[in-house]
Amino acid sequence: MHVAHIFASGMGGIRTSGDLVAWMQLIKKMKIAEAKQYVAKTLGVELGDLTNEEAMRQLREDLGIGTITSVTGSPKGIRAKLKIADLLGITINSVELFKSQIGA
Amino acid sequence: MRDRIRTRMGDGELVFLSAEEVREDILAGTQDASQRAGIPELNSEESDQLFDIIAEPSRVVSVAPGEEIIVTDDGCSMSFYSGQDSGGVGISMNRMQAVLTYERACAADSTSMGHSDYSFKPVKPIINAEMNDYYTISLTTTAPFLYGAQPNMGLYFQPDGPHPNPANLLSQGKIKEAQEVQETAAEQLYQDLVFVGKKLDSIGCEGLNFDTAGSAGDADFRAALRAISDLKAAAPDMPIILGGSGEFVLGMHAEVTFNDKLLAGMYPHQQAKVAAAAGASIYGVAIGTNTNESIAWNIARAATFVKEAVAAVDIPVHVNVGMGVGGVPMMEAPPIDSVTRASKSLVQIGKADGL
Question: Which residues make beta-bridge pairs with B119?
Fold first, then answer.
């Protein structure tokens, strides 16, 4: 059932930009339209590209913010979130802890 | 049969209704929400739009490109390894595997984990184990990773907890005693929510989900609101989602307030306002599905509540769309035709920021 909602209405998570828009909703309390506009502007893409795999797949790899397929050596997890926090200009709790642990 | 619309009842029963019957149900559903909450009905354009979604002959429907929203969850990854009683499919996999599968194989916008009981009270004695798992998994996830559980004040009453059960006291006419015991339990619940929240924040929790708040009534809802206020002061970088438990707050106590506002009887647009005032990042609207009415009736009703709640606050409003809420049929395996129709309708007509 969750997958049905994801397919019917979801943004596609790390397959596209769903995680980035979700971060803006959670951390900056942005409504969906504002969150999408912020992410699109930050990434330098059109709004429509936020859910366009053709645009987002390579862009995510280029930015090092995690890709849906497993690219060997490419950032995922906390390393990708560190870049996401920097890219979006947000404070992610787990990233702050990680940074404190590595002395960054 | 060809000119009839293939649709469902709120319990999932497959039915074939005429176009006129579907339109009547849409009108009756939106009127029901409007009359109960004192909010506007869907207008004729929205009702027509909903009719088209219900009558669409395809098995699965979806929003148009560009209309997509964020899908948060309430322990969806737990469905991979849990059993029937949790809507789970019983695959032998650990929590990290389930979370990463949900993130990477299902392309979820956010992920989460929670205790099997999915309530805060049982989390408290095993908080170190939960912190350990959360911390380890959070190193591997890329999408927002939340910790979810229900305030579930019912667990603080006998036979599950230490306090006399207010339901028994009320049935004996002991109203004052029932109120007092709820206040005592709510204080304990509030302390447990703050305790667990602070512990998780200390290991970098990316978000907390107070799911199904108010399930034991207004005192339960107030405990969650108070905990959010305290946690936002103590842990400002940890987002908190507050999810409701029904279209109105049950007045089991009937006199508790938050910010001088009586909580009992609050409808979604009012619930969202107090959630925002408490400091919640997202409010999750919950609207029960009536199993005796059609999906058209239920979705019209849900969309009416949702539209008003979304417009009432500046924070994002997500809609609970699990089994038996948000127009989704109340059954173990909700039919995908109805699930996707609820999904599309609540986004396009309810203007939800997420599900």
Answer: B150
pLDDT digits (tens, 9 = 90+) for B17-35: 999 999 999 999 999 999 9
Q: What ipTM was predicted for this assembly?
A: 0.97
Characterize the bridge pairing of strands B111-113 and B145-149: parallel
* Residue A23 distance to chain B (closest CA, Å): 6
Residues A6, B138: C-beta atoms closer than 8 Å: no
C-alpha A18/C-alpha A12 separation (Å) is 5
Q: Which two tokens stand for residue B259?
A: 């910010």
In tens, the pLDDT along B307-321 reads: 999 999 999 999 999
Flag whether pLDDT at B62 surpasses 70.
yes
- Measured CA to CA, the distance from residue B51 to residue B156 in angstroms comes to 45
Measured CA distances, B216 to B49, B182, B246, B256, B302 (Å): 36, 9, 11, 13, 22
CA distances for A100 relative to B134, B138, B140, B230, angstroms: 18, 15, 17, 25
B 241-270 → A contacts, CB under 8 A: 241
Nearest chain B residue to A16 by CA distance is B107
pLDDT, averaged across chain B: 96
Q: What are phi and psi of A57, to 5 degrees?
A: -60, -50
The string over B55-85, giving b where at least 16 C-beta atoms fall within 10 Å of a residue's C-beta and e elsewhere, is beeeeebbbeeeebbbbbbbbbbbbbbbeee
Q: What is the DSSP string of B30-77?
A: HHHHHHHHT-PPP-HHHHHHHHHHHH--SSS--PPTT--BB---SSTT
User: Cβ–Cβ of B237/A21 closer than 8 Å?
Assistant: no
Strand partners, B325: B288
pLDDT score for B3 = 80
- What one-character-per-residue DSSP string does B244-267 give? -SSSS---SSS--EETTEE-TT--
Residue B212, Ramachandran bin (φ over 0: left; ψ between -120 and 50: alpha; else beta): left
Are B239 and B201 a contacting pair, CB within 8 Å?
no
Rounded to whole angstroms, the Cα distance separating B209 from B72 reads 10
Contact of A23 with chain B, judged by CB distance below 8 Å, is answered with: yes
pLDDT of residue B1: 55
Q: What is the pLDDT of residues B68-104, one digit of tens each?
A: 999 998 888 898 999 888 888 999 999 999 999 999 9
Residue A66: left if φ>0, alpha if ψ -120 to 50, beta else—which one? Answer: left
DSSP B332: S
% of chain A exceeding 70 in pLDDT = 100
Q: Which residues in chain A are closer than 8 Å to B104, comparing Cβ atoms?
A: 14, 68, 70
Whether pTM exceeds 0.90: yes
